[in-house]
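ARCHIVE CARD
SHELF: 3
SLOT: left
DATA:
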Amino acid sequence: MRIRQHGLLPCRRADCPLARRASVAGARPGTATSIAGKARDKGLTVRGYVSMCFGDPWEGPVDAPAVTECTRALLDAGCDQVSLGDTIGTATPGHVLDLIDRHATDGIGAQSLALHLHDTYGQALANVLAGLLSGVTCFDSSTGGIGGCPFAQSATGNLATEDLVWMLDGLGINTGIDLDAVTRAGAQITRLLGRETQSKAGTAILGAALKAGSL
């Protein structure tokens, strides 16, 4: 199970055809084709990102064909995997199941996909489970649920790593991640940022440790 990878973000809006074409096509510097080509020449794995796959703060719901078009373009540009972003956190499990199914119909398997989820409406963990049921095994998360989006002000933080690992551990999925260590790191990061952790699992784990005198 992979929870985080580095990649590139060449396509900001799934519903903006002009932006899609400009950011993906061609060999000029800065396009997905150019960046992916240089990365692959160095033996690197390339992961592309499509933002606002489920909802756009300016225009509302996004049509699935626009998303799959972006995904196909990024794969054709040389990306090994494409992450579908719920940038403003409006997706539900039904949306996730439908979009991954649409990709499968268009010949793009779940092994080529990842999910980048925000927890604005409290659906991120449920959306991970929907992704798992559809065959997706790679998810983005952030310690303490920190984050947001500079071009979508309505977006709250990313799915908290602590919550994600707690759920995956409960499902018997081995992530190789030390949950206690991540929780302590999250507590330190949020303290330094002057923010409260957004992780329910992290809060509970820290509370239990304090009660037991082990923190």
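SLOT: right
DATA:
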Amino acid sequence: MDLPKCGSVQEISNALSTNQGSIKVTGRLIQHDCINRQATLCDPQTSASLCVDTSLTEPLEGSVGSLFQVIGEVEREDGGDTPIVRARIMRCVDGMDLLMYNRALRNQQKYFQSRNVTLVRHN
């Protein structure tokens, strides 16, 4: 059995322009429809929003307003303009310091670039 490819760490605003592939995003849950298994995450810094298919991650542990991290595949349905992330993992990360998290990602990126390693991409 092949494991899914490692996702690139992205901000929601950058994930909107991604065509396909695995990604990891962090955002606030602003809407959740458990019947249709869809959720919407919003980037607290840019207010960009992203639609998430939660069919593999229901029931969600958290509520609207909670901070979530999602790992999944970006897809565009029927050639549409709006991407949908099919979540493989969706976890509540309330209490995480987003500024410190983003700073750590940037430092990790600089370290990998200095070593010519491209394991994680953060835009």
